[in-house]
Amino acid sequence: VSELFSLVRFLRLDPYAFYFDRTGQCKSLNWDMGPTGKICAQCGKHRISHFCWWNKHIMNPISSYGYQGKGRTAMMRLKHEV
Q1: Who is most buried in 11, 38, 46, 59, counting CB within 10 A?
Q2: CA 42/CA 23 separation, integer angstroms
Q3: What does the alpha-carbon distance between residue 67 and residue 63 come to, in Å, rounded to a whole number?
Q4: Do the beta carbons of residue 56 and residue 18 sit within 8 Å?
Q5: How many other C-beta atoms lie within 10 A of the C-beta of residue 33?
Q6: Is-contact 74 67, C-beta < 8 A?
Q7: Given pLDDT bands bounded at 50, 70 and 90, which one contains residue 65?
Q8: How far apart are CA 72 and CA 33, in angstroms?
Q9: What are the CA-CA distances from residue 6 to residues 16, 17, 24, 41, 42 (Å)?
Q10: Which residues are paired to 28 by β-bridges?
């Protein structure tokens, strides 16, 4: 699954390759947290309020739960959406 992310990122597939903030106002292809590494250069919010769509919805559930429960849901999302 992690190898697939490289292709998704190269193709810049929306929303799979992007970083978002929790409010949905900030969207960025790159993790750009400025010179201090704490504040988003695009929206000015703290880095903790941002997440990578792929990691949150595909990679982490599969890593944590395997192919059962939330991991199965993530695999189905990967199969049908991506």
Answers
A1: 59
A2: 14
A3: 9
A4: no
A5: 17
A6: no
A7: very high
A8: 33
A9: 11, 9, 23, 24, 23
A10: 19
- Structure-token pair, residue 82: 């991506």
Regarding pTM above 0.85, the answer is: no
Q: How far apart are CA 9 and CA 22, in angstroms?
A: 20
Place of tokens 């890593």: 63
Considering only residues 57 and 34, tell me which one the structure prediction assigns the higher pLDDT: 57
Does residue 21 contact residue 59 with C-beta atoms inside 8 Å? no
Answer whether 42's CB lies under 8 Å from 30's CB: no
Residue with tokens 């949905």: 24
